[in-house]
Amino acid sequence: MNISAFTTEASSHAATIDRIFYGLSTISIVIVLLVFGLVLGFSFRYYRGSKAKRGRLPHILQNEFEIGWTAATFFLFMFIFWWAASTQLSALTPPDHGLQIHVVAKQWMWKVQQPSGIREINEIHAPTGKPVVLVMTSEDVIHSMFLPALRIKKDVLPGRYTYLWFTADNPGTYMLECTQFCGTSHSRMTGRIVIMKPADYAQWVTAQPQTRGLAQEGEALFRSFGCSGCHARESSVHAPDLHGVFNHMVHLSDGRTIVADEAYIRDSILQPRKDIVAGFQPIMPSFKGIVSEEQLVRLIAYIKSLSVEKEVQQ
Amino acid sequence: MTAITVVDLPPPKPASYLDEGHTVWSWLTTTDHKRIGILFALSITVFFFIAGVAIGLVRLELLSPQGLFLTDDEYNRLFTIHGITMVWFFLVPSIPTTLGNFLLPLMIGARDLAFPRLNLMSWYLFTIGGIFTIYTLWAGGVDTGWTFYTPFSTLYSNGHVIAAAFGVFVTGFSSIATGLNFIVTTHMLRAPGMTWFRLPLMVWAIYAVSLVMVLATPVLAMSLLLVMAERLLGVPIFNPNNGGDPLLFQHLFWFYSHPAVYIMILPAMGVVSEVITCFARRRVFGYAGMVFALLAIAVIGFMVWGHHMFVSGQSPYASLVFSFLSFIVAVPSAIKTFNWTATLYRGHISFESPMLYALGFIGLFTVGGLTGLFLASVPIDIQAHDTYFVIAHFHFIMVGGSVTAYFAGLHYWWPKITGRMYLETWARVAAIFTFFGFMMTFMPQYIMGWLGMPRRYHHYADVFQIWHVMSTGGAGILAIAYVLPLIYLPLSLIRGARAPANPWQATGLEWQTPSPPPKENFEHTPIVTTGPYEYHPAAEPGLAEMQRPHRTQTEDA
Lengths: 314, 557
What we know:
heterodimer, A: Immunoglobulin-like, Cytochrome Bc1 Complex, Chain D, domain 2, 3 domains, five-stranded mixed beta sheet, B: 18 helices
């Protein structure tokens, strides 16, 4: 890997971050020069025995200066805060219609699944010009997904999903690194992200050995784990219909409402008694220890696809 | 403070505290704050060199992208022992338990700390904690990093987590006891006339840091207990497979460990304030501002821990709040830097080794503080988090700042503590080597960090090798700078000239008693009539001016 695998501004977001970085660097260098200049200047002018004029401080130096530079420092810092924070405000939540790529981290590798069902190890292929959302979880300890060329990073935690999203502009092959210390081979838990033009990406997808899509694999699991026995519409057991559930409000038996996102579906499979849907009995068994992280990804993809179907039907 | 001329008279010398018994037993059972300060100094020196050797091996290993002589596990254990030892067995206790212990009663005109036996217990607790750490090292080490992040530390680590965590746990009680002792002492034992706003800034800094120690350290003890409970007994606290929350640990840990950064830097600010005023012959600029800045840092420092967790998956709204508060806490630090610089204005500056260290501190602290602003900005931190940029930043504060200030203080008060003068030339060489060695070690780390070099990486991409080689070269110079005092300071005990009571012509009560001081510190309880740093006439004619002791014209010039 050469240095451009780290430093290329692979997205417009990366360029924005670099602008802030260079702006902050400029401010810092000016302040460092000011402080070093004053320290050295005073040291030369007022060394013991020099003929420089001493005596009392001019009156203005006593309060006005102190208040002045306190206020100046405060406003400068507030400006930097606002400048940096304003870039975050536009992107507090992941985009809705992005290409979702699932990432499962474990000591010491990255397992990646494309929406088309293609599996990759330590490598992510993604197209330019389209929002891409990495839906990430860990099988063991906390890891961290760092994509330096995109200037983004997010920890990957066991037992929950975290999201990292970007819209890449520059095709290329860039570094992927784990930055949360995760044990013996932490420094070998690296890989690459391949950003391709949409046409190239589509070609790459079709060139892979054909797999069923994630959702279809999920549907097969949905049957083999017996989920369909209760959740199918024609089932005699009273269980919620999962069509159209994803990303919609769900009313719970204790009066709360909750948005059915990935985390909710995951919890509902592993800890079904945590959030009971209003009007249903807590009869579902837990699938903890039965369903693996990667199978969960597929089951969730299937349940998501049920919502898309419903929207299409409408 | 009373006139300088008094202290230059050869006093009828009472026996110094060093002559109060020469047996090992007399040292191990002493309740004299000065002797306990020396016990602490010896202990932390041992840990400083253990930690230094560990990181020296790491830096050598990093000369090559594929490593030279260590396995992955050995590498991980070395940087972990470096972190644990440096943070809890050197930096946190460094200035408070050595210089603070020795000087606090002297500076406020007291005979000892409020609870002398508790003070001795602090040292024993520290030593017991240290023994566990050395045991950890001997048994094969621990590989969690100094941060003990869960669930790695509780479920997956194959190192000696329990011994390491228990050592830190025990040492925490030493911090709490010392902090409590200092707070009570400052409140109760000030000499007549030593009002709060006549306290030297060193005392204010020790007082502020004691508050932080007492309030923050229990949280560390608690979080380490939880780690031990989960690892040893399987109590599911952080393990998500049993309903635990892996992020809970990070909140608890940083609730202590961010204030701990201020535990490391506040006393350093106190030392630098003493040294700069003395060698610039100048009253500190903006005394009240300096006091309130110390207290503001101590208080606001408790509210910024979430800036360690911007990429952890915490709420982005919380991140913005923590970012805002982190900028706020930077304001008082900036003011202190400006005030030290302004103190030099119209001074009579001389450049003895303590002053060289202190000026180096200002430079390194400024760079470290400014890069803190980068990390307080959420989008910049997302890129820089867990890279060498962060490593460089906190080493500028903790090593460039705290360790440099510790050496400034050690040289400044060495004649008072030991009664001997060291070789000034060698001390100046060490001070200059410290500054440039430090810059060369850590400036390259900023660069490679921003480019994307993660921390705690044994193997790294070839493109970063040039920066690692520069950094290791700098570390070599820094090592010389740290080993030099280990030679010329002990040598001064045998061959150094006898120190007068006040070799630097400093104000401050500690200089008005013989060097080394007698066991009871002062022959007569001093009576304080003026504020600290009376190096020149007050700017405003007024009460302070009238109370000023008589001086010669040259001193006023």
